[in-house]
Write a structure and sequence with these properties.
about 170 residues; alpha/beta; Rossmann fold; six-stranded parallel sheet; about 40% helix
């Protein structure tokens, strides 16, 4: 069970799935490795500013990079916690075996797991994103202006008064 963690020390994340990233699934692409470095720099800066809890929506692509980044940071700093916010059971059912394995390994390493919906619905991703924003003071996102879930999450975060940090892919 997730303890009551203050919003003031919490950052959530939103970002693109592989099909919206310029390099797709090729994580060896220099643009991808650059984004991972910038995610690490942003997470370290947030820690320096007092953020201690990170919430990730656990999707493919940028969410995976973010989760790996903050878990690595947690390995170095024992005062950090990581939460997997899952939109529904079986979020990974249509993914490849390798993607499912990576996802399940990441979720197993998180300190907390929050399941938003038992089954997939048209709204479960949006509800997951709102949960993350409602429990955070900062939104870190990978965004380049394209419409979709990240843009909607940013609009909701703006409405809720969160600080928003944007990284371009």
């Amino acid at each position: 069970m997730r303890p009551d963690i203050p919003k003031e020390i919490t950052c959530c994340f939103s970002g693109y799935r592989p099909q919206k990233l310029p390099w797709g699934l090729n994580e060896e692409d220099p643009r991808c490795t650059d984004l991972k470095d910038r995610l690490r720099d942003a997470a370290e800066a947030l820690c320096s500013a007092g953020i201690r809890h990170f919430i990730c929506g656990m999707a493919l692509g940028a969410d995976t990079y973010f989760c790996e980044t903050v878990l690595a940071l947690r390995d170095e700093r024992q005062d950090i916690t990581v939460e997997a916010a899952l939109p529904c059971e079986g979020q990974y059912r249509d993914w490849t075996a390798e993607q499912r394995y990576r996802h399940l390994m990441l979720v197993s390493r998180c300190d907390f797991e929050t399941l938003v919906s038992r089954r997939y619905t048209r709204e479960c991703m949006r509800v997951r994103n709102q949960y993350m924003v409602d429990n955070s003071s900062v939104l870190l996102c990978v965004f380049d202006g394209r419409p979709g879930g990240t843009m909607q999450t940013m609009a909701y975060a703006r409405k809720c008064g969160l600080e928003i940090i944007e990284l371009t892919p």
